[in-house]
From TrEMBL:
PANTHER family: PHOTOSYSTEM I IRON-SULFUR CENTER, PHOTOSYSTEM I IRON-SULFUR CENTER-RELATED. The keyword Lipid biosynthesis does not apply. This is Ferredoxin. Keywords: 4Fe-4S, Coiled coil, Iron, Iron-sulfur, Metal-binding. GO terms for molecular function: 4 iron, 4 sulfur cluster binding; metal ion binding.
Amino acid sequence: MIFYFSGTGNSKAIAEEIANYIGTEAVDIIAADINQIHLENEEYVGFTFPVYAWAAPEVMLQFAEKIKVSETAFTFAVCTFSNVAGMALQHFSEIIPLKSGYGIVMPDNYPITDHIIDTKESSMVKLEEARKRLDQVKEKIAKKEEEFDVKMGEDAKTRTYEMAPVFNREWRKTAAYHVSDECIGCGLCERKCPAKAIEIQDGKPVWIKEDCYLCMACLNYCPVEAIDYGKYSKGRFRYFFKGFSKENY
Ligand SMILES: Cc1cc2nc3c(=O)[nH]c(=O)nc-3n(C[C@H](O)[C@H](O)[C@H](O)COP(=O)(O)O)c2cc1C
């Protein structure tokens, strides 16, 4: 079984493809009923997730804390990220000891800071590389190779162990979301929000929780780009996974 969390589809696509390759199931942790999860006879137990502030999303860590994995299972994690992952996998392994872990560089879905990580063009290049990388990774997982291979970047320890807690405590605020008059009231943002933080009121999204996962699903899936966060996202490239081929974008 492979458990995944995904805001904009990268980690979901990776989970589904590996699951298909090794003959198991990909399960969305947001939809899963924890009481129905029985892993005693699972040969593989995997986790895929985006890296958020150099760590696994808090919701994924909390999920991992609640499940029981047998010692005989081949445990692995595959994180997706746009730049560097810090010690996300090592940190995750403190909860579920991993036998292997990989990083796959994917397009950035976080256009809300003052620096641009990806444009449409760089995203297409990343998808092409990710396609090849995924083929290698799934093969290694199928063969149960015990390996860790992820681009950690500089200051990995500080970023993961000191910055990620700040992100979870202080940065995941919904107050900075705003909606333009372009909004057509389709409700896709509400349906896509894994934190259930959005409610359509009078035909427009309203953030009804103070914090969310900051997964960027609402902003990236909006069909008319009416959702922004803070002052940097306006007009920047919106991304969600539509397949590895650039013809889809
Ligand atoms: C809140 C947030 C924090 C992020 N932090 C990082 C990071 O620390 N390092 C990085 O390389 N990418 C970072 N990213 C980019 C995502 O990890 C990347 O685009 C990922 O593949 C998205 O996966 P998803 O489509 O499954 O949600 C961040 C994205 C978000 C939304």
